[in-house]
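User: Could you walk me through two proteins back to back? I'd like the raw sequence and the structure tokens for each, with a short line separating them so I can tell where one ends and the next begins.

Assistant: Of course. Protein one, sequence then structure:
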Amino acid sequence: PAMPPMMFNQDEIEALVLGLREVQQVADPVLADAARNVLSKVNASLPKDMQRQLKSAVLYAKKFRKPHPIKIDVAVLRKATRDEQVVDLLYTDQKEAVTERTIWPLSIVFMDDSLVLLAYCLLRKDYRMFRVDRIQKLHRTDVSFKPRRVGMLRECLDRIQSERC
């Protein structure tokens, strides 16, 4: 109650609404609910005229294709990534070959209509992208790879960027 209301201009409100609606469309259920809650909290903290602007935002995010069904708890994967903990997984590739992988999870990104895990794969000894919907089983270990995640993520993203250009 003692804090002043947040002040945003029209473009900032549109950016917030669009971003949070996009998260609601593409993220796992836990993150989608969190985005809805954030939007409600932001709305409640705004002055009345800005609340009207938020509710009547002209930008909207909508997915028309159903997402690929995900078999694992993505919240567990996000926590392992944040905590920089090694993960064992059972993965089915695009040719339906099943492999066991031990990975260092670096980031989860939405790419080409799928959630994708960027990771360092100990089996391949290189960076790999794993579609989250193809992960059959996930086990978070007690082994840490701290403090390597941020630097490795930068390197992985640089490689992805250079391959796309």
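----
Protein two, same layout:
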Amino acid sequence: ADQGGELFVSLTIGRADGSQLRVLLPGWLAAGFAANGSWLAVSDGRGALWQLDIDSGRLTQLADGPFVGTPIASEDGSLMLLSVPSVQAPYRSELVRLTPSTGVATLLASDHLVYGAFPLADGSVAVVAHESGRTVVRNVSTSGSRMVANLGSGAVNVAVAPDARHIAFERTGGVFMVDGPGGAARSLGTGS
């Protein structure tokens, strides 16, 4: 996209054959491809969610939102998103699963300030959330929620491997890795 926020933007999709699709959007916050690559879920500048057909360029609004963060599409076409009260003041962010055909959003985790989510190979979800002055990673599945790692205070840009055995993050000018659930963070070096 040529810019983010609430202003109209031009989104360009480059295809493998060299052709391009350009679509005008009412702002842009984030986007994520469907599992089969046939469509793109796009959060506009207000946090509304759109489905962009990659072949035709047709836009269909799926939900008003507001939502933030990259939409994560599942094989069944549902989307994991962060639901917020306001894009301008996201003092609360909850992980939801949206079913596009009905527009219904179902709460996936009980955390009230979720920073991100990562689908795991076993079908569960790693949820990165703020809790009492610290950042935690939980494994959330149909059987409940369990703590995987306590990253301490100031952890940002968290990434969780699909097997949840490795968690990388930044904190105070350094990059760290946690190996295995309950493991201690080890420094990978300075930087971001």
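The longest strand covers residues 144-152.

Let me know if you want the two compared in more detail.
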